[in-house]
Amino acid sequence: HDDAGLSSLCDDTTDLPGVLTGYGGRPTANSVNYDGTSVVFSTITGGGPGGVLGGFFKSTPDGTITKLADHTDPLPENPLGTFSGFGDLDVDGGLIFGVANGRLYAFEGAGSVTNIATGNNLSAAGARMVYYHNGFTLFRWNDGVRETVLSAGAVIDGKAILSILGMDAQGDDVCVLLRFADNSYGIYIVSGTVSA
User: pTM for the whole thing?
Assistant: First the structure.
């Protein structure tokens, strides 16, 4: 990449769409992602009457930023509540998936947002597919169908799973970081389609 150019998409002085006046920082390790077409990011800033303020955003590689949701937008499942607790955000050629309020949301290109389920972490794995977990159960949502992939208590290599700590997915395959009941750890690949 000797001849590669470096272009700024967003920083603390960028006037973001909506009410935020700049990129305030990333709330999780999985809050900035790029699928070759779209850059998605979540940001948080301190302060305000409700504590931490934040939002979900999408950018083109040339820096055109659009707001997906921020702390002033109503929740699809509860119009009296607003988005908060901004976390993971990912895209893989289609829907944009984000975690806020301890829930998983899917953002469509036309501006609609759907509450999929509860969850803390996610990894987009295709245009309309996402893996997500709540620390104890790993799920796959594939175009509206939710499947359980792996749960705490399952025994692998003679050890019971205590918790799911992290993951990254691509298509039908997902790599998971597991903690076992004996306080050991392991990284595993779950390959192939999930049986419903």
Answer: 0.90
